[in-house]
Amino acid sequence: MKILLVQPPHWSPDGHANFDAVEELLPSRAGDVVLLPELAGSSLPRADYLARVRALAEGSGAAVVGGSHYDGAVNRGAVFDAGGRLLLEYDKVHPYGLELRNGVRPGLPSAGFELAGRRLHVLLCADLWYSAGLAGHDAFDAVLVPAFSVTRWDGPAPARELWQHMSVARAYEFMTYVAVSDWHHETTYQGHPCAGVTGFANPCPETHTGFFTGPPDAPVSTFDLDFARLDAFRHDRAARGFG
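Above: the chain's sequence. Below: its structure in token form.
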């Protein structure tokens, strides 16, 4: 299974402009799953947001994790498959920083979704920092994280390092792939800079340098979800008493 991580160069408060930009960036029929960053839909009305995610899935021939938008006071997103079928609606459970000050309310946890016989889960940005979002479930084969990583540091490096360590920790602890899509680090949100933490955590890389890859240079990057290798890793961990 191939996943495409989308890191657009700019964020717009106009959700339609963001989806237009994503459509221009995506190659046609190039993957199985497309992951958009948080607030790709900005504050689009719910019906408009869902229509744009559905159209992107149908046009790209891939399942699309549509980032999110503000549905009233909740930060909420949706997943559609390539045929335009709604697979999942998910909320941000832990609004953070600016959101709390702007009155964004916590949403409800989601149960994940199934694609091609594999179980995938979506955690919106700061929700990745809470392991309870993954604990207590049967094993997820991949955790997909739409992010908008505003930072208070002078540059993107400290936040990127934190996200890298957190992503690898989640991947290894829960024996799953972790994919993060964020906006480019030159993007700002309400005057706060983005860190551009797009990347891919692999709990079972072939070499020690492969635990985390990113952020990419290109606005669209592709990674293989090698589930046969992941299954072998899980069996080995269980055999060694780590299961």
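Helices lie at 15-25, 46-60, 98-101, 157-174, 227-239.
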